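Why predict the complex rather than its parts? Because the way molecules touch one another can change local conformation, and only a joint prediction can capture that. The input here totals 433 residues.
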Amino acid sequence: MKHSQLEDLLGAYALDAVDDEERVEIEAHLAICPRCRAEVQAHREAASLLAFGGTNAPEGVWTRIAASLEEPPPDLRLIAARDDRRNPARYWRRLALTVGAAAAVLVAVLGVQVASQDRRLEELQTALQDPLVPAFQAALENPDSEVIEMTSADGAVRLRGAVTDDGVGYLRASALPALEDGRVYQLWGGAGDRLISLGVLGPDPRIVTFRAHDYSLFAITNEEAPGVVVTANPPVVAGTTA
Amino acid sequence: MSPDLTNASDSALVVAIGRWRQDALAEAYRRHGGAVLALASRVLGNRSQAEEILQEIFLRLWDKPDRFDPERGSLRSFLLADCHGRAVDAVRSDSSRRAREDRQNAERAEASYDLEREVWDAVVADRVKEALDGLPAAERDAITLAYFGGNTYREVAAMLGEPEGTVKTRIRSGLRRLRADLSEAGVGEPS
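Output of the joint prediction:
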């Protein structure tokens, strides 16, 4: 989509009123366009002013929330996030898997090998027409980026990507077989023993972009459109940052 | 409840939530839970489903407080956007196609939106009602059917019998006008 076509959709997007394919494309664009991000945020603030704060939050629901809150695990390792180094005035406690532990889990479950950062880049012939290619290549070539390699259990499908220093993830997903109608690929980040959705990729993704947060473990599943909150499916591909 | 939390800014609350303070989550719930529940109820039309969404939104805030960036916007708009997304997903996946078409037919009949509907269980601030009334009817209808109806802009276009491009434009310009009208009137978010 041209930038002007994307802009036309920003109001509808802010109200969750676009199709899934449009949403994926808009979110990919928002990852790299601060002006559009600011417009979406302004629309969301306007929409929030339509909300009415007159009701009291019900006590019964709070009781259920409080019962579900987990205590911090005693053996939790606190790892300083990239954001903290950039902006020390902000302090967030973060959870992060150590790469070694994550890799060990995946080797045990999937027989996946963790990528080496010394791997040479592949040719991106047909990808030259994709507007995300320059950003993807820049991310891969930047020495501050972390390379991602995701493979299927049998090693037949291999995807390559990178997470930049400011937490933007890029993944070339064109090796995934196109899905039939009614199915979509969905990307997940690993947090503890749970997978958190990083976005729906559509049935035939090429280069995708996403917020990688602190995840070092990623998986892609095949889901019924328009995607799910929690997956019950094994990963089609999975991998970690090196 | 510690006195420092009731006077804390929303940003300070989220920092405290990041430090595992359950009382900070409780205070955020007290401030914003009503608005989250009211929005979910309006989109879903079903109180118990709305309460599930309310629970999910605050558990998500507990699990990943770092998704909220105070420089990007208010905590209220963050929670409402999270709630709205979840509610719309639930509406779109729950409904069979027939049930969704029935609902859209009913909403088409009510396209001139009536703010006095009994299904709302909250009081709308007069200034917000005035702002909505101050929008051109076409913009108000497009925004209402999209935001509160959980419809895509294509579905809204079909319901209103308008071109899709027109609906997209009306939503975008309506939101801009709403924000301008409401900031003029001094309606803003408590920090």
